[in-house]
């Protein structure tokens, strides 16, 4: 379980787990015209999906940092930091959420493009390490906020989440007005300056998560699968100037004691990963833009992988071997989140009764009927306790009579994006249309219907 313990979300949680309740400060961004106090009732499925997406989007639009526009790490003060902490990976998720907002008309397209341009201008001057951004930045100054004693440099995984969003923005904002043209050009510049190959340390069989000018390679954490970092390899292979080779993918990512599985859990076969699949964010973070439908390589069919991972998670909650209060067909979903005693990366093998809404809601493409049942329960039955101005709060544990008041960018973003992919496939279409991404996928010998026609845009 070492990979889970060292994974992005759990590291984050361990750092900020205790004494994390604080007061939110409003940003200067104009709010959407919606009253969160009144929770509409008797909504159709379509209307409820739209409402949840739009309400959750407020986290990124209203609560985004007023100087940089970047996504704040969380809605409550934690780990002795305040509202200055912005997250690069969560910002990538937020960028994709803003594309959804522009497409659905929640805010004007030109308002979104201007906001994104402000963010990209900020990133162009922010601290970076061989073109790779750190996990946390100060949203006002662009200076690094260390994520740990030795984690004070580039974070390859967080940066891959960020670039996944930026690539989608580049593909979406194709207008010939000055703002959209400037936005595309600046994204291209930042994207092409990222030195993914630096993080191999010159070894074609390795890829590392961190590098610091002060501590070098001291973190010493190789990216070995199967977990949330598949997208890191896709982005690294897709780089037009500093790409990795397929050898790194096959010799590092695919060489792990928790890569191949093939066993059955609750009667469902799991091609890759830890027994019982691990936390559900493995099926979300890499696939916000990367389209898993008929996506295959020599190791797996990734649609099968994600659907089966989701169903194992669901069936575990229905079986409820821990006899936790509130579990069932309409209340399921184990992933990394806040909990009653801090933060943890929950899964069937690490289950203490905490349900996290993003787990089921971000799984809409994989288990639409089961996800809709969960959505109805979360909204209709538990809404008085977990519905807020920024959508659903992070988690709840009915055995402990605990309901979070917090929101995390990395949990809110996938709800908006994956519901949209379920509804229209928007972000999947945008990301897969990128010529650089297509080249990267081909380099790693992936198969996908999206690779049959290379975008000329």
Report on this structure.
The protein is mainly alpha-helical and 457 residues long. It has 16 helices and twelve strands. The strands form six sheets. Strands 1-2 form a two-stranded antiparallel sheet. Helix 4 (88-104) runs antiparallel to helix 5 (109-125). The longest helix has 18 residues, at 302-319. The chain starts with a helix and ends in a 14-residue tail after the last helix. The model is unreliable at 1-36 (pLDDT under 50).
Label this structure with key terms:
single chain; 457 residues; mainly alpha; two-stranded antiparallel ribbon
| Pattern of helices and strands | HHHEHHEEHHEHHEEHEEHHHEEEEHHH
Largest beta-sheet details: 2 strands, antiparallel
- How far apart are the termini? 43 Å
Would you count the extended β strands for me? Answer: 12
Number of helices: 16
Q: Averaged pLDDT, please? A: 91
Low-pLDDT residue spans: 1-36
> Helical amount among residues, as a percent range?
40-55%
User: For the CA atoms, what is the radius of gyration?
Assistant: 20 Å
Could you say which structural class the secondary elements and strand pairing correspond to? Answer: mainly alpha
The global form is: globular
Strand content: 5-15%
Walk across the major sheet and give the strand order. 1-2
Domain Glycoamylase-like: 220-435
Organism: Dyadobacter subterraneus
Protein name: Beta-glucosidase
């Amino acid at each position: 379980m070492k990979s889970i313990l060292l994974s992005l979300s759990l590291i984050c949680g361990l750092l900020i787990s205790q004494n994390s309740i604080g007061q939110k400060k409003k940003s200067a961004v104009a709010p959407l015209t919606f009253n969160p106090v009144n929770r509409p009732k008797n909504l159709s499925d379509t209307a409820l999906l739209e409402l949840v997406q739009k309400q959750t989007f407020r986290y990124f639009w209203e609560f985004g940092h007023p100087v940089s526009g970047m996504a704040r790490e969380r809605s409550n003060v934690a780990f002795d930091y305040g509202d200055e902490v912005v997250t690069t990976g969560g910002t990538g998720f937020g960028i994709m959420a803003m594309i959804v907002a522009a497409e659905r008309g929640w805010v004007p397209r030109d308002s979104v493009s201007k906001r994104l341009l402000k963010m990209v201008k900020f990133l162009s001057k922010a601290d970076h390490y061989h073109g790779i951004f750190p996990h946390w930045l100060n949203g006002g100054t662009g200076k690094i906020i260390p994520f740990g004693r030795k984690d004070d440099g580039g974070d390859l995984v967080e940066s891959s989440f960020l670039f996944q969003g930026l690539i989608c923005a580049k593909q979406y904002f194709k207008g010939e007005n000055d703002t959209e043209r400037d936005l595309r050009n600046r994204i291209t510049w930042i994207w092409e300056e990222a030195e993914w190959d630096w993080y191999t340390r010159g070894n074609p069989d390795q890829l590392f998560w961190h590098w610091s000018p002060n501590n070098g390679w001291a973190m010493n954490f190789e990216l070995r699968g199967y977990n949330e970092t598949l997208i890191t390899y896709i982005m690294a292979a897709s780089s037009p100037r500093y790409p990795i080779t397929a050898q790194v993918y096959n010799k590092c990512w695919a060489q792990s004691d928790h890569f191949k599985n093939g066993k059955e859990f609750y009667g469902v076969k799991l091609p890759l990963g830890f027994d019982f699949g691990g936390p559900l964010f493995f099926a979300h973070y890499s696939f916000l833009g990367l389209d898993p439908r008929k996506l295959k390589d020599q190791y797996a069919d990734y649609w099968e992988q994600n659907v089966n991972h989701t169903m194992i998670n669901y069936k575990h909650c229905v079986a409820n071997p821990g006899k936790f209060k509130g579990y069932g067909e309409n209340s399921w979903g184990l992933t990394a989140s806040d909990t009653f005693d801090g933060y943890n990366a929950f899964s069937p093998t690490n289950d203490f009764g905490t349900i996290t809404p993003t787990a089921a809601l971000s799984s809409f493409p994989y288990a639409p009927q089961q996800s809709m049942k969960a959505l109805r329960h979360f909204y209709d039955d538990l809404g008085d306790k977990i519905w807020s101005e920024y959508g659903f709060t992070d988690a709840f544990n009915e055995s402990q009579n605990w309901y979070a008041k917090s929101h995390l960018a990395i949990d809110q973003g996938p709800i908006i994006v994956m519901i949209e992919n379920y509804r229209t496939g928007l972000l999947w279409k945008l990301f897969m249309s990128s010529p650089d991404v297509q080249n990267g996928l081909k380099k790693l010998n992936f198969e996908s219907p999206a690779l049959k026609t290379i975008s000329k845009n």
